[in-house]
Amino acid sequence: MVLTLSYEAALPLLARARTALAAAVAADRAAGATWNEIAAVLDVSPHTAARRYRT
Q: For the residues 29-48, what does the mean pLDDT come to?
């Protein structure tokens, strides 16, 4: 079975996922994770990870 969503229906899910990811990054940083470690999981450069999620 394939679940099909319209893009209008998917947008709130995307917003929630982005919020959850930002919270997870903040929690990991607070726990001592480096930007290099976070970047490796996100498959981006450390500079990009820091730019996107630095608070």
A: 98
